[in-house]
Amino acid sequence: MSDSNAVRGPRDSEPVKRTGPATFYRQVVAELRKVVWPTREQLSSYFVVVLVFVLIMMAIVSALDLAFGRLAFAIFTGPND
Questions:
Q1: Local structure of 77: helix, strand or coil
Q2: What band does 43 get if pLDDT is binned at 50, 70 and 90?
Q3: Residue of 48, 49, 71, 52 whose CA lies nearest to 60
Q4: Which of 19, 21, 42, 78 could be disulfide-bonded to 38 (CB atoms 3.0-4.6 Å)?
Q5: Main-chain phi, psi angles of 16, to 5 degrees
Q6: Secondary structure (3-state) at 1
Q7: Neighbour count for residue 60 (Cβ, 10 Å)
Q8: Are the CB atoms for 46 and 38 separated by under 8 Å?
Q9: Distances (CA, A) of 79 to 39, 68, 76
Q10: Would the pTM count as exceeding 0.90?
Q11: Tell me, what's the pLDDT at 2?
Q12: Contact between residue 26 and residue 20 where contact means Cβ atoms under 8 Å apart
């Protein structure tokens, strides 16, 4: 076992310094300035890729739901005479 602060975290006797709302806002704005925002072309191509992926996944889930539903119906209703 280790007794270092990295393992145990801050001691209970040491108060945790909190930032005020103004400092928090400045830090958020500073971090948002570091973000690399996508161009309009990149955004539209990402949108199309996500839309196609979601539609394909919807089709797969719908097909599986239909297949399992028919299977369950066939199992629980018995033979058709």
A1: helix
A2: very high
A3: 52
A4: 42
A5: -85, 125
A6: coil
A7: 10
A8: yes
A9: 59, 17, 9
A10: no
A11: 56
A12: no
Ramachandran category for residue 19: left, alpha or beta (phi over 0 → left; psi -120 to 50 → alpha): beta
All residues at 6 or more sequence positions from 10 whose CB lies less than 8 Å from its CB, including other chains:
16
Structure tokens at 27: 């830090």
In the block, tokens 């018995």 appear at 78
Distances (CA, A) of 42 to 31, 35, 52: 22, 15, 15
Q: What is the DSSP secondary-structure string of 3-70?
A: --HHHH-S-TTSPPP---HHHHHHHHHHHHHT--PPPHHHHHHHHHHHHHHHHHHHHHHHHHHHHHHH
Structure token digits, residue 6: 């990295």
Scan for tokens 């310094």, then name that residue: 17
At residue 1, does pLDDT exceed 60?
no
